[in-house]
Amino acid sequence: MMNKNTGWFSSKVINLLMLTAVTLSFNVMSAPWDDQPPKEVEALLDKKFAEGKYSAKGADTCLMCHRKSPKVMALFDGVHGNIDVKGSPMADLQCEACHGPLGKHNRGGKEPMITFGSNSPVPADKQNSVCMSCHNDDERMAWSGNHHDNADVSCANCHQVHTGHDPIADRATEVAVCTSCHTQQKADMNKRSSHPLKWQQMVCSDCHNPHGTLADASLKQMSVNENCYSCHAEKRGPKLWEHAPVTENCATCHNPHGSVNEAMLISKPPMLCQQCHASVGHTSNAVFGGNPNAFNAGQSCMNCHSQVHGSNHPSGKLLQR
Amino acid sequence: MKTLPFHINKPLQLSLIALAISASITPALADGYGLQSANRDNAKVEKWQCKRCVTSSGFSGSVGVGAAYNDASDIHFGNTSGTDTDGAVGHLEADVNYTSATGYQTLIEADKLGYDTGSAKIETGRPGQYQIALGYRGLANYDTNAALSPYRNSGDQLVLPDSWQTGATTGQMPTLNADVTDTTLKTLRDRFLLGADYKGSFYKATINYQHEERQGKRSFSGNLLTNSAMLAQPIDDSTDELAAKIYFNGKGWLIGIDSSFSQYKNDHQAISWNSAFTPTFGAAYEGQSAASPDNKAYRVGANAQLSGNGHQVLMNLSVASFTQDQAFLPATINGPSPALPASNLDGQVDTTDMKLKYSGRLARGLSVRARYDYSDRDNKTTLNPYPQVITDSYYAGTAVNPEYDRTKQLVDVGAKYRFTRSMYIDGGYRYDHNDYSDLDRDSLQQNTLYAKLNYRISPAWSAWIKATASDRTGSAYNAVTTTSSPSNPYLRKSYLADRERQEYKLNVAYSGSEAFSASANVHANFDDYDDTQVGLTSVDIQGYDISASYRVNEDFNINAYLNQDWRDSKQAGSTNFGLPNWYANTDEQSTLVGAGLDYQNLFDSKLNLGLDYSYSDGQSDTDVIQGLTSPYGDYFAEKHNINAFAKYQLAEKMALRFDWIFENYKDSDWLNQGLAVDSIPNVLIFGDLNHDYNAHYFGLTFSYQL
């Protein structure tokens, strides 16, 4: 297998997107309680959950009917279906840990169970309460109120449980899943310069925690710059002569998702530099195109001021050393 | 007041605090189907046998070996194919899972192992209890293999040929064209990972170590007075990072400590070069710049989450220290260096971060959130006067290093109200306050209002619209006086300037059938630097995208997408230290179009096919206007990509896969478009760095299913 972004890969992505958005909803859509108003289904599920009428035989009761479904049986390929895994739902209330107490569902299958995915009658926050009751750990402690939580994204929108191989956890498919909603970032990562997301050398979760963090944009580190320093430690310093905006926010000059400009710059030098530098002398001049010179060709301003990220040279105040 | 009895253990205390917090903020609604809330009175779990449950043990997955032909006549194609090897290249693939009858699990993964961008991982342990992982990941960035330079790398030095004859200008360097050779600019990273975690009954401990080595060359410029030469700066450095954390949890609380240590080491302390130019006006024969200094970073932080009854409070306090004490280079290598005030910087920047976040559900359909962040940067580096020998050539007095201390605070309050199951509104207000030292402004404040309306029009159609408005202003703008020449009084540096920003986003999505889904987005962003006369005055960004996927049948999928965006920026300058008398307009435009198909189970379920095509085109047009308009040359990048594969099942457990990647790539940059190494009299450049190629990758992979 060569590049994961080939058709094989897109098929995985399509499968993931359609499985989560369609196949899951297919299960839901084909459910006998589809005709009932979602509000009533939710109320009934609340009641069932409070009553706690669990089955007599656990998963064995459920599998009497559902064992014919490959999707259901695929649960046993992963940790969620492994009775030997400590903390697994199968080691606790089994199928009913996530799908709620059986109640009268086995009498004709018409009584609703808790279902997951975008077309489930169960609101996203209630779906997520099931997952978060086990997964509230250091990686997900800022889930509540984060961007995805606010946008009604359910865990099942991105994750699959009935599998041994959750596609979103696969680096090969992650970027495509994220960019199916984050379309501006998809456009950016295809531009002239970008972090190497298109071919999955990097993935979104290298910088962001989709489950939320205490930093802006769900960044994994405390600040934008610390996020950048985690791979670009050479720019961390502290250096003797620092470039003020560089120490504050790399995104002042760079768009980390990509840009039509080289080096992911938000604008091209010399114009970029002249947005802050207009003093007596050469920085105040209009730099015209056409005849190549030290200002409009080569590395532009960086022909001389090559240390724009700061310098540790004693004579480096002008970032020339 | 009576204190809590000392024999109450810590977890119980935290649970009590969590309970107290949740009880004190009433009313509250705890909704959901969490396991902790399950009514287990009638669950006879001890009788459940799980006879129909399936447990599998042994090996599963596949291993593969492949060989490929890669066309790397222009190494830029390596960014797509993952290798710059020109010709034959081999690789290993693996996705193996071994589960023992007793519950141990081992995963072995390898992807493109053998390429610069290959990766591999071995993970073993008992899921849910402990795991140990060992990993490798390669990253590569290929810039060009056609940068023309007469310089050769030798350690920290860039040296000219022995026979080199200097010239006053690049055109007067007699052997220049004979001495230039192709230089490759690329960066390769090899990252090694070792990690372990252990999960106890009420705690989880994780430790991770990462070692990364970086090698390659990048563009740099060596400057002596008014002359400069582009140089291929060597990259040979490493970063080690050790991170450990431990978290404890109980009913309604989670508390933990995160810590990390990172150390950067550079094999190069300096980059020095011979001047290719004949020294004029006392300029030097040699120059030397500092390379990135070795440095260390330490961080330790505590997090606590307390929740209950639909409320949650999250707290963080962390401190970090960034240090650097590499010995200084001399102020000049052209003659004796003036004495330095210290032998090294002994640099130290300390940061303190404090974050407090609340989220809760106040009534059915109404949830609120609030957040306060405090972040302080304290530069503790000693301030000293350093002699400034400009470009190793002339002494220009001394200068004191700036501190650039700052304190950032933000408050964000928001609420989400659900009118009906199909409609909600989410909105909030955010206030940012930044205090600075050594900058043109002592403080900046920004007020932001945002709102989003989400409406599920029908089971098939949904839409949302989002609007954000922010206003940034600050204390009096007083240009810093520490610069060597004063700033224009009408200049407002773009990152400190007053700014009014509006952002709008609209999304419409259709998912009405199992087979077909589609979505469309429109976005616009308007930045108006309303108090700026010299500097950046406005940035307008607009764009849209549409995408659709269609499942023709169970085996056949197609998808397509189109994205376009525009970014127009305007700025003004002044040549007479007064009001603007020239203007620059930069208009950027970008298009991305793609389509893909995937056909599975052809020929008796033996053949799978896939094809993806994408086209991207980005350009930037710059006009500088000072009475006359002076447009710049071409600036664009255009790429066609085809990715196709065919996988044929040779036998039950054996498959052969053929991959084809084609790329047609063309770009141009007016910084070097059509230029030769001697096109600029006082700058020795790398020549024309534009790319224009058609490249193919053909790969054959044999895989065996375990």
Helix percentage range of chain B: under 10%
Gross geometry of chain A: elongated
Broad shape of chain B: globular
**Which structural class fits the helix and strand makeup of chain A?**
mainly alpha
What labels describe this entry?
heterodimer; A: 321 residues; 33% helix; elongated; disordered N terminus; B: 706 residues; mainly beta; 26-stranded antiparallel β-barrel; four-stranded mixed β-sheet; 4 helices
Give structural notes:
The complex is a heterodimer of chains A (321) and B (706). With 321 residues, chain A is mainly α. Chain A has a domain at 237-303. Chain A is built from 13 helices and no strands. The model of chain A is unreliable at 1-12 and 14-29 (pLDDT under 50). Chain B has helices at residues 10-24, 78-81, 176-179, 602-605, and strands at 58-70, 87-99, 105-113, 119-126, 130-149, 152-154, 157-159, 181-199, 203-224, 227-250, 253-266, 270-274, 286-290, 295-308, 311-324, 347-363, 366-379, 385-390, 394-400, 406-420, 423-436, 443-455, 461-474, 499-510, 516-528, 535-553, 556-573, 582-601, 607-626, 628-631, 636-649, 654-668, 683-684, 692-705. Mean pLDDT of chain B is 94; it is low at 1-8 and 22-29. By secondary structure, chain B is mainly beta. In chain B, the strands form 3 sheets. Chain B has a 26-stranded antiparallel beta barrel. Chain B has a 4-stranded mixed beta sheet with strand order 6-7-12-13, with no helix packed on it. The radius of gyration of chain B is 31 Å and the shape is globular. Chain B has 4 helices and 34 strands. In chain B, β9 (203-224) and β10 (227-250) form a beta hairpin. Classes of the chains: A mainly alpha (321), B mainly beta (706).
